[in-house]
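Batch job 17 of 40 flagged for manual review because the log was empty.
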Amino acid sequence: MATVREDLQDQIIAIRETVVDGWKDFKSFMQETWPALTILLLILIVALWVADPAPPREIWAATGPAGSSNEVLGKRYASYFAERGVTLHLVPTEGSVENVHRLQDPQDKVMAGFVMAGAAPHHAKGIQTLGSINYQPLWCFYRSPVPLPIKERETLILSHNVNMGTTNSGTHLLMQEMLKLNGINGDLSKFKQYPDEQAIEMLRDGRLDSVCIVDTYESPNVQKLLKIPGLQLSAFERAEAYARMVPALEMVTIPEGALDLPTNRPSTSSPMIATTTEILIDERLHPAIQTLFLMAAKDINGKESFFSKEGQFPVFMDSSQHRSKEAQIFYEKGTPLLMEVLPFWLAEFIRRLVITLLPFFAVAYPVIRSMPNYHKNRVRGKINRMYGALKFFEQSLVTAYDPGQKASYLAQLDAMERDALGMKVPKSVASDYYTLRSSIDFVRNCVLRDSYNAHAAPTQPSASIETAADDGDGDDV
């Protein structure tokens, strides 16, 4: 048992000595290399905050008119962002056309917006898409006690007493396209252009014959229209033809009775034309914020809705805009793992750190790796310089020794030894260090014995010092 106890004590002592020696080496390393390490740290900080800046804490996004689904959607996105420490300021607008104009204005704070597909010019400069997030059908309601045949219905809807939305709205843009497809290219100013909420009240009061609105089924404005008595919803029997002629359009269907089963509304399956809502962004928007928009879209718009199945959105559907690279990566690989398990800001910091450190270490690693050798070579250089001084000192003794200067010779040797004692030497060059001190002591003993006297000048000291110096580094001093 005593042997085991002693062996254990020896192991503990060895571990302690290893830790102490390692700490001493580390302190010595830091003292020697702190300037280079400081420069590398400053380079890393600059790379983090300049080359890959942190995402902004505040973002402005354009939504849409009051009562629209985009207004409601914006509030849900704002709550999602707030939970992750980002403030999403919502900017109410007349609709998609205004949203596009604000995104294209480099002086505008708006960096994202909900936009109807087809509202932006083809491959609009400075704009990218994060993808489609829902269907927005064209809802046309008209006043009639019973559904009208297609010809009478189209005559009523395309009459001048129909509201086609304000000039900056997506509804107005789509209605213009629909009128042109039906051969109506005259003065469109005769059509009503009221905001949606006002138009709905005017339709309720009988001051309008028809109201058309592009929005989701769930929007407050569409739900208001569905509940007004005496209104009929127009189907679009030629919806497939419209979708073929206009790339931004899709065909969706309202099944028989889907709006109200007790009254079997609609009485037949009703085809509808629809656009999709796109999240368009200023191409300067920070990649992490783009990812946050996509995460919100997946969480909010990825659920089942009236016209879409769970997981159908978000997705790329509109090919008319440049696609965000961040969105392409998101759709291929899903939500970044770090953002699934860590808070947004921590995950983003780690991502930036990794991306920045990869090129940083390509430069820094060789420098850091060479630092221990730098310290060792620096100490070895000092030892070699002291060997050189000792050699020249000894040669002067051999050629011009003066017994009366013995005290001066010893004082010079003592000064050399004090310089040697003041050196901090790593273990890797300890052998050279102690050889140097032995050489100094050897010359001192020779002086004390007057071995350099011209009558009995030894040759051994000079050879010994040269040999010791050569063994220390292999270079001539």
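Reviewer: the log was empty due to a logging misconfiguration, but the result itself is present. Residues 193 and 223 are 21 Å apart (CA to CA). Unflagging and moving on to job 18.
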